[in-house]
Amino acid sequence: MLGGHGHRSGPHAGRGPAQLSLPQTIALGLENNLTTLLATERATEARALRQQVRSFLLPNLSGTAYQQNRTLNLVAQGLAPSGSQDMAAGGAGGGTGGGTVGGMAAAPTIPSFVGPFNTFDARLNFSQALLNLAAMREYKSSAAAVRVADLTAELAREQVATFVSLAYLTAQRGALEVRAARADLALAEALRQLAQKQRDVGVANGIDVVRAAARASQQRLRLVQAEANAEQNRLDLERAVGLPQGSVTVLTDTLAARAEALPTVEGALAPAQAARLDARIAEQTIEQRALDRRSRAAARYLVISAAGDYGQSAVTPFKDDRATRTYGVTLSVPVFDGGYTQGRVNAAASQQRQAELTLGNTRGQVEQDVRTALLGWRLAAEQVRAVDEQFDLANRELALATQRFRAGVADNLEVLQAQASLANARALQVQALAQYGAARLNFAAATGTAQSFRL
């Protein structure tokens, strides 16, 4: 089972709820556990990536404006001043103006340096993909990735619900062990008092008192150990659901066996295959990988896009300004990319086959989980019935042994043995109830219903 820890944990005790049921525990765990929080953020990230991909299919508008003051060296642009060679040969004209050569007007010369001069331009730019199959298919793939992320987030919620439910069961088991230890200590104290009373009246001897006192001392130690273990279990539960450590909270749902019919394997398998989120994730991943493969293959197709701009061109704003525009259509056809596209297609195809293999394995795992959970549930139910009978017999044995010791026809060895048998039966009873609750929880997890699990 995937675990996790609550992300909120206050430093002071006593700030948790006064009472806490199992449904409340699951709700707190889903709200505070780091695993669910991270999974939710990953789903949000997948939506953001889908939004980025969608932008390739939507119109793009942008505005630009600039004011420049420029100078140009025309010689650097490959434009030599006209007439320079004639002037060099004839020695007439010169400068930058016109002149006469051989009695005829010379052509105006082009200066080698121009400027400074002002230029202003402000316009709106537009572009739109008219046909881009690769982008369309990539968007579909990103939408499928969002569905996978959502299912993964829901799977995290199922896993956290299982984890915190198990922590709740463990805490309740610790409470039952404390209760059992206190009951055993009460019996040991009663026997010690009875042994002292029997000795006072001359029916028992000192060894009976010593035995009873040793038994009471052992039970006190067991109680201390049970209380420490129960406190640790409570701390683990509080950490799992994000409660302040050391909260004074009463757990209201207790471990108990139910008189209920166990589901059949055939009746549980079909709903489990439909509800188990890991199987649904595997199915959706196959679809997402197939769409990804198709989007990569579409990189071979032509792309048609439109672009244009419209704005004002002038020397300075509102001086000699004129409206200018550009528009056109671009067609792009990939010819050769060195095998890059084919490599990406092959990688996506391999990922799709991996997802198909994962789905087959996941379905087999679901069936095994259901069968194993039902087997454990059936065994736990039988154990509860067996230890209940053993507990009743141990009670009867203790009552008879106590009567014999009180009547003075036997020492307290029989009572001590009967108390040990009863303590063992009581411990087995707690263990059986805990295993029964855990078996029912395992079945809920195997069938994808951990969030609705109830004791």
Structure explained in plain terms:
Helix content is 61%, strand content 14%. The protein has 455 residues and is α+β, with helices and mostly antiparallel strands. The protein has a single domain (19-61, 131-452), classed as Outer membrane efflux proteins (OEP). A 4-stranded antiparallel sheet has the order 2-5-7-8, with no helix packed on it. The protein has a two-stranded parallel ribbon with strand order 1-6. Strands 3-4 form a two-stranded antiparallel sheet. Strand 3 (100-101) and strand 4 form a beta hairpin. The protein is elongated and about 160 Å long. Residues 9-14 and 84-98 have low confidence and may be disordered. One of its GO terms (cellular component) is efflux pump complex.
Concise overview:
With 455 residues, the protein is of the alpha+beta class.
